[in-house]
Amino acid sequence: MPDLMVIGGGLAGSEAAWQAAERGMAVALYEMRPKQTTPAHVTGLLAELVCSNSLGSKLVDRAPGLLKEELRRLGSLVVECADATAVPAGGALAVDREAFAQMVTERIEAHPGITLQRQEVTAIPQGQPVVVATGPLTSPDLADDVASMTGSAYLYFYDAMAPIVMAESIDMSVAFRASRYGHGGDDGDYINCPMDQSEYERFVGELVGADTIALRDFELEDPHFFEACLPVEVLGRRGQQTLAFGPLKPVGLTDPRTDRRPYAVVQLRQDNQSATLYNLGGFQTNLTWGEQERVFRLVPGLAQAEFVRFGQMHRNTFINAPTLLLSTMQFRKREDLFFAGQITGTEGYVGSVASGFVAGLNAARLAGGFTPISFPSTTMIGALCNYVSNAEPDGFQPMKANFGLFPSLDPPVRKKRERYAAYARRGLADLKGFIDAQGL
Questions:
Q1: Which of 8, 81, 226, 429 could form a Cys-Cys staple with 134, CB 3.0–4.6 A?
Q2: Per-residue DSSP letter, 282
Q3: Would the CA dihedral through 399, 72, 349, 33 be positive or negative?
Q4: Taken in order 354, 358, 364, 367, is the CA torsion positive or negative?
């Protein structure tokens, strides 16, 4: 029997398994793919990214950037692999998703302390430490077992993925390379498809009237959308100008054909290291595939776009963590059971990695006779774990890394950018003190 069983080979499970194994535990990592897949995954690789290929800002005075920097300083496997497989994305850390997942898989398979088991786990075992990191697409049998064990109903939201197109199919006589306000590489890290007012209004009209994929009966009963990942057609229905002030905002960009700011802009982000694939930023969608081709080809520059992946929407599942988990990621009623990843409500790729890190670290500490630890609430890792374990249970929703989770500064800092920079300085200083004190 292994010292630790980790269920789920996504971002959180891979990180948890690595951290526990690095601390001497014999870990069995269970991943059901490729024998059994999910509605969103397409490979059997560990840590496969199924939505965007971006892990958020690289800037340390931005919440996602601070979280990644904390994880770097702690020795995160996933962040190390992301840095090694990065593609140009301005101020964001985006990865070649296949190269990234392949690297994580190879590192896990090569670790002498980890045994990778390709099979589904249908129930949480008793009598040994376990990390449940099955993500938002937990298999039905295991989800039923978790629900039965917790005695509480699952919550859920809907997540949506953006389409990906071939770079060579983008009409660069219309589209242009640039990053907003000149941020990014010399040539601009994004491909921009500019719209004038008539093109924008026609696009929005067709978008909001397009056919969507029919939801299943149980989804129709309560069709809520998670606000941080709304389908583009849902945003379009909120008002004619919603998209122009949202994902299609043209600020900081100049169309070289007119030397003026466009009325609206669709930005495409590089999706792989060879720059042959680009995803449509902010274009998560539940349109039918035929409608995606018809409507998205109305975007100037995409008239002949070749789609290699269409957008889709799927149901995500997470537990009511404040009633069930401690900030150590331990289950309140069973100290050797840990949860990690999006199933806990730590939303976003890097948030999943963070909770996986904490779960793996604390599983190893518990096995070694040490008390599990909670990170300082002034660090982004600690703030996220504190949120999911102490938020108001009624109406609990997943949370991405953000500075609103931090305790206030003393004395207060009025200007936002200066305040965020101060949060980052305090967080990294407190993390260093915590690492030194705990011997991490």
A1: 8
A2: T
A3: negative
A4: negative
Per-residue tokens: 243: 């998209």
Tokens found for residue 396: 């609990």
**What pLDDT tens digit does each residue of the chain (440 aa) get?**
899 999 999 999 999 999 999 999 999 999 988 777 776 677 889 999 987 899 999 999 999 999 999 999 999 999 999 999 999 999 999 999 999 999 999 999 999 999 999 999 999 999 999 999 998 778 888 888 888 888 776 667 776 778 999 999 999 999 999 987 766 555 678 999 999 999 999 999 999 999 998 766 555 555 566 666 788 999 999 999 999 999 999 999 999 999 999 999 999 999 887 888 899 998 999 999 999 999 999 999 999 999 988 988 777 788 999 999 999 999 999 999 999 999 999 988 999 999 999 999 999 999 999 999 999 999 999 999 999 999 988 878 888 899 989 988 999 998 989 999 999 999 999 999 999 999 99
Strands 190-195 and 176-177: antiparallel
CA dihedral sign of residues 285, 290, 291, 297: positive
Give Cβ neighbours of residue 294 (< 8 Å, ≥ 6 apart). Answer: 206, 210
